[in-house]
What does this fold into?
Amino acid sequence: MAATKNLLAAFAAAGLLVACSSDPEPTASTAGAGTVRPGSQEDLVANVGDRVLFDTDRSSIRADQRPVLERQARWMGQYPQVQVMVEGHADERGTREYNLALSQRRANSARDVLVAGGVAGTRIQTISYGKDRPESLGSNEEAWSRNRRAVTVVR
It folds into this structure.
């Protein structure tokens, strides 16, 4: 009986060692070559970031968000064939008309930083979704803060 317990314990320990020493699950950025195509939306999301967030009722780029757009501009410099759409979004508060105008200003602000970073304006289109495409459902500051955004999408 003791020998059986010892044998089971040894197998369990060996199983744990094998599990701990195995390679981690591959991710989009660590998987085999070709998983994330350079210059693709997946590449942008994984290696640069595709969105910037805004303060309530504001369309100016926050200082903590500017580096994302600067990285996007450098990334677009590496892939001159890439064209993007900058989507402006707003949270659920306010009228439809107000949010469409606000989210257009947000998209334009993001576009302006990309152009200032050397990206040709002809490669960037903007669109305003207002509050029609929330990323996060909910009527609280956490949800609203994620919905106040501009998202860069590879076309």
Observations:
- The first helix runs from residue 2 to 21.
